[in-house]
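User: I'm putting together notes for a lab meeting next week and I want to include a structural view of one of the chains we've been expressing. I don't have a solved structure, so I'd like a prediction I can at least talk through. The sequence is below, exactly as it appears in our construct file.
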Amino acid sequence: MMLKKALQIALIALPLTFSELWLLDFGVRLPRVEVVAQTVDERKLEADRLFEEGKKQFSNSQFEEALQLWQQALVIYRETGDRRGEAYSLFNLGDAHRSLAEYERATDFLEQSLAIFREIGDRQGEAYSLNNLANVYDNLAEYERAINLR
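Assistant: Thanks for the context. Below is the predicted structure for the 150-residue chain, given as structure tokens.
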């Protein structure tokens, strides 16, 4: 009977003992994950940084790396509604694909950039896109198409 009583007391006290152990500070800390919301301006700055890094890679003939950076920038520009950044990213993607002799992809990106430049009234960007489209058609020996660009 005494053993039964002791066992009951132990079973009641045991959870309390373990709960007290959890309260002790053993100096072990779990990593705290903090989610920091980024503002639109911060996202645009990140896109601009990626865009500029892509230009550096492109100038060093690191076309694949430039493509990856500009693709990342493009995603952010689209998310933030920056049409000008989107257009220039598309333009640069087209130029990089042209440099890799991937003319179909180059044409696709350059036509997208041209449409946005026209939409936002960026005449210089429009001229750049038309010029590079003409270069692609020249590379493909499609001279008539190059001449007829408007």
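A couple of points you could mention at the meeting. The chain has one domain: 40-147. The helical segments are 2-23, 40-59, 63-80, 83-99, 103-120, 123-139, 143-147.

User: Perfect, that's what I needed.
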